[in-house]
Structures are given as C-alpha cells and as structure tokens.
Write a structure and sequence with these properties.
heterodimer, A: mainly alpha, globular, B: 70% helix, 1% strand
Chain lengths: 260, 270
C-alpha cells in the first residue's frame, strides 16, 4: 500500500512540474468549451429546446462534460502503451507490485490538479456564460463523478493492452476516443441520437463516463433513476477492473521486445 | 536558375523517398495501419454526426443550412487532414529537441525542417482525407455554387492555400518547442485544438474568438472564410480571396520561427 501511495504522490508532483503543459491543455479545453457554448447558443437561441434540453440545461451539460473529460486523465494509458511497445513492460512484470494498481495510483495522483482545473473553469464559465442550473442531488453526483476516475482508467488500461498485438497505440487510442466521445454523450446528449445509437450506448460502458453524471446533475432522472445510473457505473467499473486484470495476465504472454 | 530548379527537384525527390521509407516501416504493423485509417474516418465523421443530429431538428445555425455547414466542415477537414499525410514528422520536433537527437539531422546535407517533416506519416490523415472528401462531394452536390472555369480554378487554389496554411501553422507552432523545451509539443497540440473551432461559421462566436481565428491564428482562412466566399455570401466572405496571401505569409513566418529556433538549439542536456 505504501508503494502505491508514494507513486500517487510522485505523480501529483509530476503534474505540478509540468504546469506549463497543464496550463496550455487547460487553455485549449476552455476554448473548446467556449466553442460548444457558441454552437449551442446559436442552436438554442430564443428559448428553443432540443431533445428536452434548454440552453440553460445544455450549459450545465457542457460543464459536466468538461469535468468528466478531465477526471482521471493523468498519465495512464499512454505510458503503459509505450512501455508495452518498447518492451519495458517486461520489467514491470518482474516487479513485486501489480502494474494495474501502480498505474491507477498514478492516475489518482492527478486528482488534486484536475479538481483545481475543473473548479477554476467552472467558476469562470458560470461567471461569463450566465445562468447555469444548480447541481441536483449533490451527494449522488459526487459519487457519480468520482466513479468516472476508475472507470476511465479501466477503459484506458484495457485499450492499451491491445498494443501487445498491434505494437502501436495511436490508431487504437484515436479510434477508442472517437467511439467514446460519441457513445459517452460528450458530443451530444444521447437523447438526441437516433434510436440505434442510443441502444448501442445503453449496452456499452461509455455512457457511464459522461451521460450518467450529466443526467444526475440536471435532475433528468429521479432518485431511483440516479441510484440506478450510479449502480450501473459501479458495475462497469468493477467488471472492467477485473476484466483488465485477466486480460493483462493473458496479454503479457505476448510481449515482443524489439532490439536487444 | 537551372541550379535552383535542380535543388528543388532533388528536395522533392528526397522528401518523397523519406516518406516512402516511413510508409514501408508503418506497413510492418498492419493491424495498427488499418485501425489508424478507420480511426481517421470515424473521427472526421463525429462532426457530421453532431451536425446531422442537431440539424435534424433545427433547420439552420446562424443563417447557414445543413448542407452549407457540412461544406464548411468538410473544407476545413480537407485542409487539416493533409498535415498528418505529408508533414506528420513535425510533431516529433519537440522530442528531438528534448533528447538532443536533432544533432543527427543537422549533419545531413538536406534542410533540417524538411527532414523533420518527412520523418513520419500519420495514416489517420488518410482516413481524415477520405471522410472529408466524401463529405465535401456530398455537400458540393447540395449547395448552390455558381460554377464556371474561373470558379473551379478558385476552388482549387483555395483548397491548396488552406492545406499550405495548415501545414505552416503546424510548423510554426511546433517550432515553438525550441523555446519551451518540453518533450511533448503541448503548445502545438493546444493550437491544433483551437483550429478545430474554425470548422464552424465565425458568426456564431464573439468578437474575441473572431479575432483569434481570423487574425491572430488565421485558421479561419483554411475553412470557413474560403467556404463563405465560394458560397457567395456577403459580410466578410470577400476575405476569401486573401487566403493564398495568408498562406504565403504563414509560411514565411513559420520558416523564420524555425530558423530562429534552430539558432537557439544547444543539443542535449536540458
């Protein structure tokens, strides 16, 4: 346990050491927020509604999307993917600590910085973009947001394992990002999508990344519904965690070490 | 004159050879090659899904119809997707500087900028290009453009200017790595994301964003502004004719920044 706590602390220090990079990343994603605000404002001007969302509600939705895109974003999948690619993962395999837990500790270490970024951006957004609905069911919402961290980590870890076979991560990562953006509801609320996409999203874990916390935030579901969404998030988090563990065990028989 | 023509031909030849070597090496990883192409297609289609989903219920955004929105989106997509295809290596510049590996390139008798640019081919760009072309073809059939031989020529010139502009902006923003000294080109990546905002009509943005995308970092000249000009819109659409000049200016600036940065380069040991 101490080893993991140390890794989390080191990872936190790394995020502070690369504050320049974080500042630039934050600036870029804030501009992205400005752009989607502009688009939705143009779409929903004059009190129009889309799929039951008013402009004010969409602002809340954007805010949750921004938050969930930052949560659990530190290091993680790319560092694992690169270690698999160049064979360094062989060293991880002989270490007396579990690779998966170690990487999760690193992701968890990024949490303080992520909270700072999200808090700052949210404050700025509410001040500049005007009325944003207040979060409903704060307790369930916090649980739902916190669950995003292990879930995103699990999905990322599982994706990175594909590198054991493809030996390169760019394509896999981009394809996964695109699918995740679409089916998590971070592109548009799932309620706006055609039926077949909604069904696809309902049976995959991505909706738990953004759509679920957003719906809880806006009070689009009642307490029972919110509990159901959180329950589903927990199910996916646990299932993917253990699935990834099994997959890692199987995949590590596949190590290809280049050079020598 | 004869000499400079020969130098140019040799440069183009070497550039092609360099890209060709990368293509052969990438094809070693067949699975990832195909995944990259599919990833490019899917990524480009995301914007189309967004537009289709919301515009199925709202007929126009800020006075632009669905077909026109797709036209703008696809035109900007074509300009940006050429960057990974012909100049993806530029994204490796930050790493080369950080590790001092630029040394090797400086000893070879070929311009370092061209060596860096041709170091890698991003096959996702091929997917981007395919998806954007399909979208553009569909949009061209649906929007009202008064075609004439001159208009066709203008279309080609505008598309090429957009591509040149995006490559120049990628070079300039990555050359900033000479000063930032980070192993990952965070600045260029942030700027690239800003470029995505120029895939929608400028009119939806406030003044600050319009100045940012139209003047400070002129991404709008690789998408929205030429599209507005081709669609014969009033307002600032006439700026479209400036696109080739903006591209040339961006190239001059990019090469200048790269040269200044190279003079600052002090090998490994940061």
């Amino acid at each position: 346990m101490r080893a993991y706590a140390t890794m989390a602390r080191l990872s936190m220090r790394t995020t502070f050491a690369y504050r320049q990079a974080y500042a630039l990343g934050t600036a870029a994603s804030c501009l992205g927020l400005v752009a989607s605000l502009a688009l939705w404002s143009a779409l929903l001007s004059g009190g129009a509604q889309l799929g039951g969302f008013t402009l004010t509600e969409m602002k809340g939705y954007m805010l949750v999307t921004f938050a969930t895109n930052w949560l659990g974003n530190a290091v993680g999948e790319w560092s694992l993917a690169n270690r698999i690619r160049d064979g360094q993962v062989a060293i991880d395999l002989v270490r007396p600590i579990a690779t998966q837990r170690l990487m999760f500790a690193q992701v968890a270490g990024g949490f303080p910085v992520e909270v700072l970024i999200i808090g700052g951006a949210a404050a700025g957004f509410v001040l500049l973009a005007g009325p944003v609905p207040a979060p409903q069911r704060p307790l369930l919402l916090s649980v739902s947001l916190l669950l995003v961290i292990p879930l995103r980590f699990g999905i990322g870890f599982l994706t990175a394992l594909v590198v054991f076979w493809t030996e390169n991560f760019h394509g896999v990562a981009w394809a996964r990002n695109a699918v995740s953006q679409l089916l998590s509801g971070s592109l548009v609320p799932l309620a706006l999508m055609p039926q077949w996409l909604q069904v696809t999203a309902a049976v995959l874990p991505f909706a738990s990344l953004t759509s679920s916390p957003a719906l809880i935030y806006l009070g689009k579901v009642d307490t029972a519904g919110a509990l159901g969404l959180v329950g589903l998030q927990i199910f996916w988090t646990v299932a993917i965690w253990f699935g990834a563990q099994l997959a890692f065990r199987g995949a590590s028989r596949q190590v290809t070490v280049h050079g020598g | 004159m004869v000499d400079s023509v020969r130098t140019l031909r040799r440069s183009v030849f070497l550039y092609r050879r360099s890209l060709g070597a990368v293509v052969r090496s990438v094809l070693e990883y067949t699975a990832d090659f195909w995944i990259l192409i599919v990833a490019g297609i899917v990524t480009q289609s995301l914007g189309l899904v967004f537009l289709s989903v919301v515009m199925a219920r709202v007929p126009q955004i800020n006075g632009w119809s669905y077909a026109e929105m797709v036209f703008i989106y696809a035109l900007a997509g074509i300009s940006s997707s050429i960057v990974p295809v012909v100049a993806d290596g530029i994204w490796a510049l930050a790493g080369l500087i950080h590790n001092g590996k630029l040394d090797y390139l400086l000893t070879r008798p070929y311009p370092p900028l061209l060596q860096v640019m041709s170091m890698w081919v991003g096959f996702n760009g091929v997917g981007d290009l395919v998806a954007s072309t399909v979208m553009l073809a569909w949009a061209l059939a649906s929007v009202a453009i008064a075609w004439s031989p001159g208009m066709v020529l203008a279309f080609v010139v505008l598309v090429l200017s957009g591509m040149a502009l995006r490559i120049a902006l990628a070079v300039a923003s990555n050359a900033v790595s000479f000063w930032l000294k980070m192993p990952v080109p965070m600045f260029a990546m942030a700027l690239w994301q800003v470029g995505e905002l120029a895939r929608y009509p400028l009119g939806i943005y406030g003044l600050a964003m319009r100045v940012l995308l139209g003047v400070a970092i002129p991404f709008a000249f690789a998408g929205f502004i030429p599209a507005a000009w081709l669609l014969d819109r009033t307002g600032y659409a006439w700026l479209g004719v400036l696109a080739p000049l903006v591209a040339i200016a961006a190239w001059i600036a990019a090469v200048w920044i790269f040269r200044r940065g190279l003079r600052r380069y002090e090998s490994a040991g940061h």
